[in-house]
User: Which sequence fits this backbone?
């Protein structure tokens, strides 16, 4: 499993390594000045303090095989609002992302991609070491600082990250599995070709889910 970009995904755990959204936050910061992740961090802390709210009883949408909770949506909306989107735009983009994430999580489970507690702990430990070793660019370092500051302590934040990656790490493994299989079958293709293939794949599995809002 590639270690590149672990801390970037920590900055934006709502999208993680799967969409490489860390670069999106950085690009947005460069284009529009400072991006505040304070509100996003507060939403993450709220989930950490009240994990029962993320239960299946708190559904926002349901597909044929997957579910999206209101907590998932709250996190995603807070992230996209931090990028400068309006409430309406943020909810639309958040729903799009969450459908893809939920569908991908289900496909990962079907493919047998799992993550042990030790794998999750090691992954998050590596992320923490990169952050505390100040291996990030200045902008990203400040973004992580801002999120951690919303928690009662840094330890709480890193404990929270472990809960995030219990779900996210199998998806990362599955994405890497798909990329390896694609590369073996299309040796001459570029990273951009793989990216287009994966984008289309995510659209296909979302269509298969046929998500409906829960009323």
Assistant:
């Amino acid at each position: 499993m590639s270690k590149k970009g672990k801390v970037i995904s920590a900055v934006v755990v709502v999208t993680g390594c799967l969409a490489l959204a860390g670069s999106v936050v950085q690009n947005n910061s460069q284009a529009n000045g400072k991006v505040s992740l304070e509100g996003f961090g507060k939403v993450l802390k709220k989930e950490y303090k009240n994990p029962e709210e993320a239960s299946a009883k708190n559904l926002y949408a349901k597909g044929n095989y997957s579910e999206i909770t209101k907590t998932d949506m709250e996190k995603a909306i807070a992230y996209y609002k931090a990028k400068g989107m309006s409430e309406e735009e943020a909810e639309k983009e958040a729903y799009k992302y969450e459908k893809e994430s939920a569908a991908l999580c289900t496909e990962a489970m079907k493919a047998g991609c799992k993550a042990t507690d030790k794998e999750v702990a090691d992954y998050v430990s590596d992320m923490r070491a990169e952050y505390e070793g100040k291996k990030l660019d200045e902008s990203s370092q400040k973004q992580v600082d801002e999120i951690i500051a919303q928690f009662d302590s840094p330890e709480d934040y890193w404990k929270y990250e472990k809960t995030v990656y219990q779900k996210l790490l199998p998806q990362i493994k599955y994405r890497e599995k798909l990329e390896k299989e694609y590369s073996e079958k299309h040796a001459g293709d570029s990273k951009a070709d793989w990216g287009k293939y994966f984008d289309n794949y995510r659209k296909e599995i979302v269509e298969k889910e046929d998500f409906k809002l829960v009323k």
User: Anything to note?
Assistant: Residues 154-185 form the longest helix (32 residues). The CA atoms of residues 68 and 98 lie 7 Å apart.
